[in-house]
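User: For a benchmark we're assembling, each entry needs the component sequences followed by a predicted structure for the full assembly. Here are entry 17's components. Please fill in the structure.
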Amino acid sequence: MKEKTLFLPGPTPVPPQVLRAMSAPLIGHRNKNFSALFERVQEGLRYVFQTENEVITYPAAGTGAMEAAIVNLLSPGDRILVAVMGAFGERFVDIATAFGAEVETIEVQWGQAPDPEIIAERLRADKNGRIKAVFVTHNETSTGVTLDLKGVAAAVASHPALLVVDAVSSLGGIELRMDEWEIDVVVTGSQKALMLPPGLSFCAVGPKAWEAVEKARMPKFYWDFRSYRKSAQRGQTPYTPAVSLWFGLAEALEMIQNEGLEAIQQRHNVMGRMTRAGAKALGLKLLAAEDVASDTVTAVVAPEGIAPSDIRRIMMERYGMELAGGQKQLKDTVFRIGHLGYVTPPDVLTCLAALECTLAELDFPVELGAAVQAARQEFI
Amino acid sequence: MKEKTLFLPGPTPVPPQVLRAMSAPLIGHRNKNFSALFERVQEGLRYVFQTENEVITYPAAGTGAMEAAIVNLLSPGDRILVAVMGAFGERFVDIATAFGAEVETIEVQWGQAPDPEIIAERLRADKNGRIKAVFVTHNETSTGVTLDLKGVAAAVASHPALLVVDAVSSLGGIELRMDEWEIDVVVTGSQKALMLPPGLSFCAVGPKAWEAVEKARMPKFYWDFRSYRKSAQRGQTPYTPAVSLWFGLAEALEMIQNEGLEAIQQRHNVMGRMTRAGAKALGLKLLAAEDVASDTVTAVVAPEGIAPSDIRRIMMERYGMELAGGQKQLKDTVFRIGHLGYVTPPDVLTCLAALECTLAELDFPVELGAAVQAARQEFI
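Assistant: Structure for entry 17:
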């Protein structure tokens, strides 16, 4: 049978040419061929992160790179501020707490985003400059909410704190200008808008962050930014890199460079609007308000009396499309549609058509065609 | 041009069917299809580790799993004993020191292995049972030396200390019976005898180790064994697994199960003997004595007046075969031939034939055919 089409917020579909690149015979990671690949990848990553900084590539899941950002910048007892708008904001809190940071949080209801002014206020109140770093989630995968990152960056700029951004489900698909917005560390993963399988994660590290690294005393070895910087000078990594994924990464970065970041972000914006318009046309509620709604993932509230797991099951078994469930407290209330990476507006139309049929099958009163029609208006 | 043939102690050649398996379309990691893959992989891993224990799979390099073993078992200030016989023994020391362990070492000259009796003696002297764990390298990739692991395990058995084994370049290729020998944690990586690309690493965790996990206070999040055990109960991993590498892993484990561990280890033993006999027939010295020489990697001392980098360059550029250099203090004295994983005795013959020609080209007096002839004696 045909494979399922992934409408997940990760893993996302991987282009055939990327999969093909990954199946090349292995090469040694301590020779010139690998160094050439390293330079090519580094250049592509700098483009995607919109930075001149070093980008570190770990063989690890995104959570690994989140941990790396924490242990490389902080010492036990350091105070940090984390803006929590869902499961991944909570993850920053959990990791930092495990390593002995003092964590202050700004929490909003899941489905909302904190106003940059609230962060600015909290930092103004920190007269002694005790807050060493502010951690935010650019795009909260669990709720489909995007933060006003440019606004937050401006708010943090007037305080000595570092700004660390989890851009796992945004980078590539949603505008993020690391250097222009003066962000100190940006974290992402391979299996989202970068169109790769999972297994690689990244930390882009700015000059102010490198200064903090020298003073940070949280214990670390595998994640130590300094080892990666040292090896990068000769186009290598300190520990064996996931070579096959690097082959795919080089190919995916080339595709991104060819399409162009602006065009890619425009495509994601269209897909986000289509998904929301389609869902609303079916009478479904969205978890996020329109002004903070994400261009890469949409959390849809399941109608009263219908379990999100039933919607997902029919979408999967009958229509061959895989949607994500809700995380943590949203488990029984929402399902999520990922529309990022190697996905196009026509794919979104297909997904919405199947969603209409699925709801009809579950005896939810839908006007067949309504979602497709509404989505088409956003695609014109 | 044809790709280089890898005679590296990692990455090793990857079978075409494994590369092919890796290029399947991605699947979601929170559904039944992944859980089925998880169970299949877990069963194959248990066979390779010769254990009934849980085997944890990390998206990470081998060094990550080494760090995981340390931070999950120990608290800051805990005393450990590390047997150091090369670069990877030193790595255990470096990681444990970074996390605040008190590290005692048993050091031998590079190219030798510690006698189990020396470890037994040191443990007998530890009357107050202060040593919490013994860390050893089963097969030291940097020197081509194999430890008498069964002997070491017996030596540790009479002391309460845990036994942690780095089996990165041995597991699969060299006998290791985790349960029968009562080893508490075994660490390995994907890119050696498991015939996969790099990017996955593993910790098999025994019951005594799980008890230690409950008391261990070194800070951790990503590596926390307990999160992996909890997710394993529903056939999942706590953070996004490197799905494509898992596809390859399932295929590689099936190949290993089909060939059979005993046959595989016999094949590696033959290749080790062939390589050593061939090198010696050319008048080359080996770093390791025959009684501790490794079946998976051989460190050959470059002849007086010939740089190992010249040998490697000609092998690479003219014969299309990639050998490894020496690590750390061995950088200018040895080159290393990896003969593990998807490699056969005829491959070793080819490598030795090319080595003969390379040495002749460098004006080292060789009798052409001598290495092949000597190796053939071990292959009969």
